[in-house]
Fold this sequence. Notes:
InterPro entries: MATH/TRAF_dom, MCC, TRAF-like. The strands form four sheets. This protein has a four-stranded antiparallel sheet, with no helix packed on it. A two-stranded antiparallel ribbon has the order 1-6. A two-stranded antiparallel ribbon has the order 2-5. Helices cover about 30% and strands about 25% of the residues. The protein is of the alpha+beta class.
Amino acid sequence: LSLSLSLMVSDADFMPPGWKRHARFSFTIVNQISEEVSQQSSDLTETQEWFDHKTPAWDFANSIPLGKLDAKHGGFIVDGKVKIVVEVNVLEAVGKYEDDEDFLDLYGLPVYPSEMEFVSPIFEQHPDFALAFVEKDLGTYFKRVVIHQLIFLIKDLRKPLQDISFYHAHHTLVYLKAVGLDVGWLEKKVSDLKEKKEN
């Protein structure tokens, strides 16, 4: 088993035609036992790449064997968890997001009018699901990334059972909970659909 990392432009679907981003980025795996040995892995050196509509994601060529990261040998895996710090520096940007004035403010969330059909019903049934999230001091861009992930998952769950990616659904739920969204209702829906597919 090994750890592989990649960097993706999560909001790529909302970018204007012809967009490009030239970025310098690196991953640092945090040692959770000793800060003195928290360092950037030699296998995940800093790199520069161009991101665009054809290549919205880049993978690091090398993967790291999990044996090098576990608590007995390095302290990078503790209680089954790995902490990773990502540093991204955008060197050049071609094409911009739509202006903030194109967003609607839906209970503190920047939402496009076309997205209201997905997000508005959530607030009707679960009015406090984003309360902790919107209280955080986060920028519009980060909020847009989270909303994009939420809507992508909702759309995915509307597909026929055989086309739903439950692997992706699980990891999206972990991400949404980590940023502060209360998605217990969505977890139940994913669990029910997965059980239905298995039966």
